[in-house]
Design a protein that fits this description.
With 74 residues, the protein is mainly alpha-helical. It has four helices and no strands.
């Protein structure tokens, strides 16, 4: 189990946030409601969705490496 206040926890949270926003971008209702703002606080969701869709290979590899690290090394 990871702690949110550790570096591992922050990385896991960031990866899960990017993956969740990229998934929510595929849902039409949530895309217009949640990801319509491109600036401000709500713009973080939009930017995370863009990172998740454009860098989907790198994000997937980071998720696999993090899972391997958390399961076998920590």
């Amino acid at each position: 189990m990871t702690n949110v206040y550790s570096f591992d926890g922050i990385l896991v949270f960031g990866l899960l946030f990017i993956c969740t926003c990229a998934y929510l971008k595929k849902v039409p209702r949530l895309n217009t409601w949640l990801l319509s703002e491109k600036k401000g606080v709500w713009g973080v969701f939009y930017k995370a969705a863009v990172i998740g869709t454009r860098l989907h290979v790198a994000v997937a590899l980071c998720c696999l490496v993090m899972a391997f690290y958390l399961l076998f090394m920590k």
